[in-house]
Design a protein that fits this description.
The chain has a single domain (43-317), classed as Na+/H+ antiporter like fold. The chain has 20 helices and no strands. It has helices spanning 3-7, 11-21, 24-36, 38-44, 48-61, 65-72, 76-99, 102-105, 107-118, 125-131, 136-162, 170-195, 197-202, 204-223, 226-232, 234-258, 264-275, 279-285, 292-300, 302-320. It is globular. The two termini are 34 Å apart. Residues 321-327 have low confidence and may be disordered.
């Protein structure tokens, strides 16, 4: 973006654009702000569902229709990645949890892990992948297709494996997910018609900055009670934190291995996307009505979600230098 264009911004828009340019650093700072200022989390916690809806609207507003059509003309990789994220991951996690008897040892933790597995990737995944120089278009279309599938796959898998520990029926979960996504698509369509694609591109950095602010609402609302939980049970919180990081690393590593034949860049892009699960979507669908340990697991899972981009960016850049295989 040219300096002339940036100088034409009003001060508030320029401030948002500056925040948007901070990229992965701003995201990493969010979890520490949420952890360090518990009163902010308590104040923002009632607005978690609204923040998730706004993030969905932003994501659908910025969909590049032409790029989506390009990948849809050769859909096999997208279909494979969609089924892996929406069906393969939940089935693997269900099998692993049942084998390790996590469902019996800690039903609330089991619920958190399974809700994490059935949800779609984070709405911000395409933007983060682009910041790392990887294939954002592939991630974007897979995000859209997976998100569209989740209202149907999540209730089905819930009814098979963990419906008994949910505070709502799988059918209600599916209907709420459909409502959230359909509403976001309608709002995004109206915004695109009124603003126009050119304006959305022009103000891209400012939109990124606004996204960071909305993410602050989500992360702070989740992290507000973590400090108190740590002082009450430091060993337990550390163990749940290790589980959160281990789960994210497992998601990343498995996906890179599964899609390694698609090329290093695509495999890493899909691996990063799959490891960034949209826990806020499940929170919004459940209206925040989750057990205490499930909530704590969701909160601590924000650490790998928002720290991975900063930690893995150099690795992704090195991987991108490896030549892609011939088709």
């Amino acid at each position: 973006m040219s300096a002339t264009m940036q100088s034409s911004y009003s001060p508030p828009v320029a401030a948002l654009a500056w925040l948007g340019r901070q990229g992965t650093r701003a995201l990493a700072a969010l979890v520490f702000i949420g952890l360090a200022v518990p009163p902010l989390g308590e104040m923002l916690r009632p607005y978690i569902s609204q923040s998730v809806f706004v993030l969905l609207c932003i994501s659908f507003t910025r969909v590049d229709v032409a790029a989506l059509r390009t990948y849809l003309s050769r859909p096999m990789l997208v279909v494979g990645a969609t089924l892996w994220s929406a069906v393969g991951i939940p089935l693997l996690f269900a099998a692993g949890s049942l084998i390790t008897r996590l469902d019996q040892a800690s039903p609330e933790l089991f619920l958190g892990v399974m809700l994490q597995s059935v949800t779609s990737p984070m709405n911000s995944a395409p933007a983060l992948v682009a910041l790392m120089g990887l294939d954002a278009t592939l991630v974007l279309i897979t995000l859209v297709t997976t998100t569209a599938l989740v209202p149907f796959t999540a209730p089905l898998i819930a009814s098979l494996f963990f419906g008994g520990v949910l505070s709502m029926s799988p059918l209600v979960l599916g209907l709420k997910l459909i409502g959230l996504l359909a509403g976001a698509i309608v709002v995004a369509t109206v915004i695109r018609r009124l603003a126009g694609p050119a304006a959305i591109v022009r103000y891209g950095q400012a939109i990124d900055g606004f996204t960071v602010i909305v993410l602050l609402v989500l992360v702070s609302g989740l992290m507000g009670s973590v400090a108190m939980s740590f002082w009450a049970d430091p060993v337990g919180v550390l163990l749940v934190t290790l589980l959160a990081f281990g789960t994210a690393i497992l998601l990343l590593g498995l996906t890179v291995l599964v899609f390694r034949k698609a090329g290093h860049e695509r495999a890493w892009a899909l691996g990063f996307m799959v490891s960034q699960r949209n826990l806020g979507l499940m929170l919004a669908a459940a209206n925040g009505g989750l057990p205490g340990l499930t909530w704590l697991y969701f909160a601590l899972s924000q650490f790998p979600i928002y720290l991975f981009p900063q930690f893995l960016k150099p690795l992704f850049r090195r991987e991108r230098t490896i030549p892609e295989p011939r088709p």
